[in-house]
Amino acid sequence: MNTEIIEKIEIALNGMRPFLQADGGDVELVELTEDMEVKLRLVGNCSNCSMSSMTMKAGIESGIRNALPQILKVTAVTE
Fold it and tell me: Which architecture, in CATH terms, is 3-76?
């Protein structure tokens, strides 16, 4: 897979991590699919927070898509 894009995703996530970690959570990159979908997992307190869907959409997805316009979709996985 495209390691350059993965590195840029991680850079974008690193910019958001301090806010998540301040609340006892974090985010992990699970997968970048061939059709440019980023799959993420919220962990720690973020995994069961009632605001997690808003955090994912308004915060994380927005940040990734601003940094990487070629990303078509950002989804949360729960496993």
Answer: 2-Layer Sandwich (3.30)
